[in-house]
Every structure is written in structure tokens, then in C-alpha cells.
Design goal:
By secondary structure, this protein is α/β, with parallel strands linked by helices. Helix content is 35%, strand content 18%. A hairpin with a 2-residue loop joins β4 and β5. α7 packs across α10.
């Protein structure tokens, strides 16, 4: 790779901005927020304070945002977010975006009162013009059907912006036609001796092992897409969508590497953004930054505590919700399980399952432990590695329910590939990689 000078840029994903002129609130809104990962009313203040910090950095003039810029395609939200992007531009920043599924909507609405209130949406075909000053207008190649494009962000450095959330196509896809277009652009870049990295809203590599089973957690046919990018000279891709901090490597059958840097939503736990540099020695450095104070009354909490406390509670609320509903005996069994989940400590669960494990978590409510584990998965660098008390506890619980896992595994297996659900879950809650999900360094080819 012949990089003519250092490249420095900020990576900000999943801002999910909602313009508060739309006046969200009421019973329906508050009910939704119980299980929501990110903050809605606070989104404008969070974005503004983060952009203030980026503006303070006079050495870094590039900002990249890979989609889900607004909450639900509201036109007022897109208009409001554009003002923030122009503020970056007016302060000397070059800003590049792709849009995604949350950025257009023919039937947009906000939660107000006890239900939904319709608002003016944004048409997919208007997005390129709306965001023309932020990547699309500088494109040296543009794929009209998908709004994918290529831009030269610095001398000898090009960015392939893959739009996999196009209207009228399955979400999270890169079909053969788009791959053929991308290959043409990558061939041109190679001929011009340019270094190319990519951005895509959807992760190319599943951020954690269990997300392999979640259809919407990564791009469709991800191994094919990862191999295509790696074998055509793309070693780095920047992604979002899953609101998670993760960095993963993939090697194609030809031995070529792809590094996927997936970054959390800015506006909710883990609430991070990244600063990325590639120096003259082809050393890639990824640095994770916290959302700064954004001027709201947080009841004495730091912003990180505010975000994390809410998300932990939301995880528990989702589990409780899963233990509701049903009919007949199923309904009664779920109701019983829900009561036990609400009251049970880790110690009482161990006693129920006849587990003799470390006592580190004995006094903790099991629901709180579940919230902490869920939070750690999204924060990255999961602490429950083999040999720790948390790993031993979770491994013991899974062992007691091995008969359930064995029944489920065949249903989850696809294309003849067997699933080891126990290993997949344990590898999800414990980071076995040689590098951090938050701050990492790689030498590129």
C-alpha cells in the first residue's frame, strides 16, 4: 500500500437523530423507551456535543458516518441532522455519509400520546440530493440503483461506500450486480495505485459468534461478500447497524484478510465513536472515544453510567417481556418463570440447578447479572473468559440445559453446517481474540 500521507478520520455510526420539534412523548413513547437501547429525546444534544469535540480537533478533517442517521425517516429529522453536518463542514471538516433503512420512510411516525402520530417522511429517491454535499456530490463513481459510490477522500486513498439498504431490495444485501460494479471500481483503484477501504451499514462479519444465527445481524451471505472484498484489495471495512463495539478478522480461502470495525450507536449504550488513523508505515490504529457530557441533568451520573444503566434495564425488560404471553399451560409456565426471574438471586439459581461454582455473584440478583452480561456483549472486550467466575457460572447453566440446546441445534443448522450452541454462546460472552474490540492496532498489507 502506498499511502502518501497519514490518514486520520472520525467514525460515527447510528446517530438515530429525532428532531424534537416533532414532540415525541406520552404513554406510548415511555413504554417503548423501557426496552429501547438508545435515547431519543436526548439524541440531538448527544450529537451536538460529540460534533463539538470533533470540531475541536484541528488535525483531523474527515468524518465518516455509515448510515441510520435519523430515527425513522422523518423529513424534519433529516433536515435537522443536515444542519449538524453543515456545522461540521463550516468548521473545515469533510463529511462522508451513506444512508440506510432508518433514513427513508414513506409512512413515518412518532410516538405521541397513547399511540402513533403520522409525520412527513423522506422519499428514498431524495436522499442523494439531500446529502449531496456529504459524499455523493464528490463521487468519482456512482451506482444509481443502490446509491453506492466511490470517493477519493485523500490523495491516493479511496472509499468504497456500499449501500446495502436500498429501497425495493432485501435489506442487508449486496447482490451480484452490485458486486460486479464494485469490482470494476476496485480494479480501477488498483490500476491507479490507490488504497481502498470500504464502509457499509451492515456488518460484513458477524460482530459476535451468536449473531451468526441472527439474520439481520450481518450482511446476507457474509462469507461470500467478505471473501469478495478481501480478494479484491479491500482489507478494512467500517460498519454499524448492530449498535455494538466489535473488531473482527476474516481470511478468504486465498488467504486475504478483511478487518471489520463495527461501532456502536452514538446515542445509546455503549455510546462510542472512533478515531482511526493509518500512518505512512501502513499501521492501522483504532481508538474508541466516549460520548462527552451533553448538558442534560443525569441525576449525578456520568454520561456512561446514564447510558449503561438504561441499557442494562432494557435488556432485563426484554427478557421479562419474552416471559409473557402464550396460552394455556405455556402462559402459566411463563408467568411462573417470570416471577422467579424477578426475585431469584444467583445463589438461589445455583441451588435450584445443583451448581457448585464460585461465590463471586451469589448475592447478586440473577436479573442484574443478565443485564450485565448483555451490556458486556455490546461494549466489547467481554470479560467472561474461560476460567473466570462468570464464565464458569454461565457454562454450568448451559450444561444443565444441554438437552434443550441439543434439540434446538438442528433447527438452527443451515446448509448442512452443524451448530455447537454451547460453544457459540460461551465464545460470545468471552473475548478470545488477540486484540481489543475498542482499541486495536494492525499492520495492513
Amino acid at each position: 500500500m502506498d499511502v502518501k500521507k497519514n490518514i486520520n478520520f472520525y467514525l460515527v455510526t447510528d446517530t438515530h437523530y429525532l428532531n424534537n420539534v416533532l414532540e415525541p412523548g406520552g404513554e406510548a413513547f415511555e413504554k417503548n423507551m423501557v426496552t429501547e437501547q438508545f435515547f431519543v429525546k436526548e439524541s440531538g444534544a448527544i450529537i451536538s456535543s460529540t460534533f463539538d469535540k470533533i470540531i475541536e480537533d484541528k488535525e483531523t478533517d474527515i468524518v465518516i458516518l455509515p448510515g441510520d442517521l435519523v430515527k425513522n425517516g422523518e423529513k424534519e429529522s433529516n433536515n435537522g441532522f443536515l444542519k449538524e453536518l453543515y456545522r461540521l463542514k463550516e468548521n473545515g471538516k469533510k463529511v462522508y455519509v451513506i444512508t440506510a433503512g432508518h433514513d427513508y420512510n414513506d409512512s413515518a411516525y412518532v410516538l405521541k400520546g397513547d399511540g402513533r402520530a403520522p409525520v412527513e417522511g423522506t422519499d428514498y429517491d431524495d436522499l442523494c440530493e439531500m446529502y449531496g454535499d456529504f459524499g455523493y456530490g464528490d463521487a468519482i463513481a456512482f451506482d444509481e440503483p443502490t446509491h453506492s459510490y466511490v470517493v477519493e477522500i485523500s490523495s491516493g486513498v479511496r472509499m468504497l461506500a456500499i449501500h446495502c439498504d436500498s429501497k425495493g431490495q432485501p435489506k442487508g444485501t449486496m447482490d451480484d450486480r452490485l458486486m460486479a460494479w464494485a469490482k470494476e471500481q476496485l480494479d480501477k483503484a488498483r490500476k491507479d495505485n490507490c488504497f481502498v477501504f470500504a464502509i457499509c451499514h451492515y456488518p460484513i462479519i458477524p460482530p459476535v459468534p451468536v449473531f451468526e444465527l441472527v439474520g439481520d445481524a450481518k450482511i446476507k451471505d457474509w462469507r461470500k461478500i467478505a471473501s469478495f472484498l478481501a480478494d479484491n484489495g479491500v482489507e478494512l471495512v467500517l460498519t454499524g447497524h448492530m449498535h455494538i463495539q466489535s473488531i473482527n478478522e476474516f481470511y478468504s480461502e486465498k488467504g486475504n484478510r478483511l478487518i471489520d470495525v463495527c461501532t456502536s450507536a452514538l446515542v445509546g449504550s455503549p455510546a462510542k465513536y472512533r478515531k482511526i488513523t493509518i500512518d505512512e508505515n501502513s499501521v492501522l490504529k483504532v481508538k474508541t472515544l466516549d460520548v462527552p457530557d451533553f448538558g442534560w441533568d443525569l441525576n449525578g451520573l456520568t454520561p456512561q453510567e446514564y447510558f449503561d444503566n438504561h441499557f442494562s434495564s432494557a435488556i432485563v425488560a426484554r427478557v421479562r417481556g419474552a416471559l409473557g404471553g402464550g396460552n394455556g399451560i405455556v402462559k402459566h409456565l411463563k408467568a411462573f418463570a417470570r416471577k422467579r426471574f424477578d426475585k431469584m438471586t444467583v445463589k438461589s439459581l445455583k441451588r435450584l440447578l445443583c451448581l457448585k461454582r464460585d461465590k463471586e455473584f451469589d448475592k447478586k440478583k440473577f436479573s442484574d447479572f443478565v443485564g450485565e452480561v448483555g451490556l458486556s456483549i455490546f461494549t466489547g472486550d467481554m470479560p467472561y473468559v474461560e476460567g473466570t467466575a462468570g464464565y464458569n457460572l454461565l457454562a454450568g447453566i448451559l450444561d444443565r440445559f444441554s438437552f434443550v440446546l441439543k434439540k434446538v441445534e438442528p433447527k438452527l443448522s443451515k446448509n448442512g453446517e452443524k451448530i455447537d450452541l454451547r460453544s457459540m454462546l460461551l465464545n460470545t460472552i468471552g473475548n478470545k481474540k488477540d486484540f481489543s474490540d475498542n482499541n486495536a492496532e494492525f499492520t495492513l498489507k
